[in-house]
Write a sequence for this structure.
């Protein structure tokens, strides 16, 4: 981030503030700013409400966090696009005469993007809210009812504001991501004009110097927009925390119905990706495709793109684990100033970070693979430290002291006591790091100039080419890879410690 | 004179069974529930307030002639103070006090009566245990309850604070003249200047 800001300051020094006038040459800029702010804010507010509801009713959609944004966006597009699932089923059920031939969603306000972002952010926020819940929260809701609130009133007046107030910083993170993301926008955003983040990517891919000047000014505009949406969110939140709510029962029913609608789409999007990935052709008027084959899937699985994604994800994740454990061994704590960069890595617009890294790579002439690993590893390491640091601090100190009293050096205490005790959480951190790396689209695209192809990049290219089966197969693999790694990370410690009863609960 | 009367043949909460039991408390009177841990004192209070999923056989809860048992928790109008004050962390002190009514003026006055007017806009988390207990009492009484149920409300306080909060609670019960049920382990919790009935649940 510091690099990016230095770069911006340097360029501005070189070109003067008057260079901002280039922004006036961009058609549809204000519409783009509005689109980014509106979709980011609306999706985050809905995600927060949905997440609070999921926590309260105990629905478990945490696994959705592992599904890359891009894969979910492609799945939803295949459900809702005119020539997608609903198009085929409308013809099959007699509602339409034939499947419309245009493949893209006609959605000038980005509402499908809002829906996709909402699902993903809700899963993330539900995890955060769930981890912050206490046994007293339920007692407070009951207490509110003893003070005269009915069930819905107690929910809206106590449970919702309590969760939103506590999870405020996580909501800021989600909001920042929603305003600045490229992944979902590259599949579901309106194109004329696109979101601000997509506009920046378009200009970063343009070799002309004026395009770069525009890109830098747009990045600064994006940062200002993030701040404005956070302020707007806070202004919206404040009355919700203290107002006397009305219409709570109706709102409760709407939320319940909406939650079912969302769950249906999560399942359907995965099903449609699978169906399209193994289908031959889907004749108009048929409920299902007419023939099946796995050639497309095999093509994706055997290609370099799949291997690149796998290797890059594993390398970034394992390197991240190595660095995180080394830092923890030497006393790093998630507290004070040392957590600033973790929060910065997770909370700042990735475009800003990527821009800084790109500039650094140009100045230092570092090999692009190293810069790419740096770009992925930066975010991967932040997530892994977030998970590992509390687990490290919770390790039973007497066990480590006992090992030391038996003559072990500090590194031996770590390797022979701490690491085995933490094997489950380490495995989970590997899986999270892997899924974070697989989901990195912007950094892969910008830092390598498109020279390294990954599944994420392939999906975006396929989304614009109309190769529906290849798109679905790539998106399915993009979603499956993290899922498989998550499954292994869960199963491996169970198998490893199958004969150690005490290790079944230590993580 | 309005009485809170309740009884049942059996109150079952999982493996735990209590009963048969019958009792009543008149206005301005305190029914003290005794018994060792696990004897069902808190379960009984939760059943009375309507927060329990315990099964009951031939049960009744009557306030004057109205049967409260069929009513949901929010319509029973029974004030409830628990061991922890459970103030709503997202609301200021005064909005906690005014939670049931929304009447900020009355809440401010009630806070002044318990010596907390200076803390009206404060974050509840910054209050001491005794101050939080006082806010919880104000909040419970502001809802104009027909009876007050006290589930060891003094046990989390240190001895010095305990005495002052006890006196405040008994004074309020005298002033609003409603029946009260107190669950406690500590004989010092029993009010000296209010009519008291004692019920030992270890034999129920």
């Amino acid at each position: 981030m510091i690099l990016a800001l230095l770069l911006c300051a340097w360029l501005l020094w070189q070109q003067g503030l008057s260079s901002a006038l280039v922004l006036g040459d961009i058609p549809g800029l204000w519409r783009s700013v509005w689109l980014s702010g509106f979709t980011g804010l609306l999706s985050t507010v809905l995600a927060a409400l949905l997440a609070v509801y999921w926590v309260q009713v105990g629905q478990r959609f945490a696994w959705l966090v592992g599904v890359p944004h891009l894969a979910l966006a492609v799945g939803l597009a295949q459900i809702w696009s005119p020539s997608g699932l609903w198009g085929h089923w409308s013809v099959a059920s007699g509602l339409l005469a034939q499947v419309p031939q245009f493949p893209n969603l006609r959605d000038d306000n980005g509402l499908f993007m809002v829906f996709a972002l909402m699902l993903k952010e809700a899963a993330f926020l539900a995890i955060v809210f769930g981890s912050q819940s206490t046994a007293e929260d339920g007692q407070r809701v009951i207490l509110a009812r003893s003070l005269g609130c009915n069930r819905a009133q107690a929910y809206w007046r106590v449970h919702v504001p309590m969760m939103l107030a506590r999870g405020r910083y996580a909501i800021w993170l989600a909001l920042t991501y929603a305003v600045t993301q490229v992944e979902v926008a590259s599949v579901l955003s309106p194109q004329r004009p696109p979101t601000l983040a997509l506009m920046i990517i378009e200009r970063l891919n343009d070799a002309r110097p004026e395009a770069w000047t525009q890109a830098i000014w747009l990045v600064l505009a994006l940062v200002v927009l993030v701040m404005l949406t956070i302020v707007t969110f806070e202004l919206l939140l404040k009355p919700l925390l203290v107002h006397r709510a009305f219409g709570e029962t109706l709102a409760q029913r709407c939320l319940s119905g909406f939650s079912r609608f969302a769950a249906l789409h999560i399942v359907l999007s995965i099903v449609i990706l699978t169906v399209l990935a193994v289908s031959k052709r889907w004749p108009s008027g048929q409920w299902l495709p007419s023939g099946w084959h796995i050639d497309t899937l095999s093509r994706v699985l055997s290609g370099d793109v799949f291997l690149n994604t796998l290797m890059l994800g594993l390398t970034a994740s394992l390197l991240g684990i190595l660095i995180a454990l080394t830092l923890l061994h030497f006393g790093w704590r998630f507290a004070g100033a040392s957590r600033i960069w973790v929060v910065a890595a997770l909370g700042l617009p990735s475009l800003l970070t990527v821009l800084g890294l790109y500039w650094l790579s140009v100045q230092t002439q570092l090999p692009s693979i190293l810069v790419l690993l740096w770009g992925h590893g930066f975010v991967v390491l932040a997530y892994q430290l977030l998970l590992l640091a509390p687990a490290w601090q919770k390790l039973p100190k007497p066990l480590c002291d006992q090992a030391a009293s038996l003559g072990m050096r500090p590194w031996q205490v770590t390797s022979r006591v701490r690491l085995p005790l933490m094997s489950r959480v380490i495995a989970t951190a590997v899986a999270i790091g892997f899924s974070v790396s697989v989901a990195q689209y912007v950094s892969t695209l910008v830092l390598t100039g498109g020279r390294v192809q990954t599944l994420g990049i392939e999906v975006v290219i396929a989304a614009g080419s109309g190769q529906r089966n290849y798109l679905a197969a790539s998106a399915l693999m993009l979603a499956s890879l993290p899922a498989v790694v998550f499954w292994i990370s869960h199963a491996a410690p169970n198998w490893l410690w199958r004969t150690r009863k005490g290790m079944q609960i230590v993580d | 004179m309005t009485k809170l009367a309740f009884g049942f043949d059996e109150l079952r909460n999982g493996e735990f069974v209590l009963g048969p039991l019958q009792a009543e408390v008149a206005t301005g009177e305190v029914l003290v529930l005794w018994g060792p841990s696990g004897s069902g004192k808190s379960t009984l209070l939760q059943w009375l307030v309507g927060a329990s999923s315990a099964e009951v056989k031939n049960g009744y809860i009557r306030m004057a002639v109205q049967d409260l048992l069929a009513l949901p928790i929010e319509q029973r109008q029974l004030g409830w103070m628990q061991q922890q004050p459970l103030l709503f962390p997202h609301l200021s002190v005064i909005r906690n006090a005014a939670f049931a009514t929304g009447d900020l003026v009355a809440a401010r006055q009630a806070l002044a009566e318990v010596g907390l007017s200076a803390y009206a806009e404060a974050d509840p988390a910054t209050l001491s245990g005794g101050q939080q207990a006082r806010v919880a009492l104000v909040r419970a009484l502001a809802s104009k309850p027909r009876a007050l149920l006290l589930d060891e409300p003094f046990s989390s306080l240190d001895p010095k604070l305990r005495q002052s909060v006890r006196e405040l609670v008994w004074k309020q019960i005298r002033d609003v003249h409603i029946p009260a049920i107190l669950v406690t382990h500590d004989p010092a919790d029993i009010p000296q200047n209010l009519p008291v009935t004692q019920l030992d649940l270890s034999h129920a």
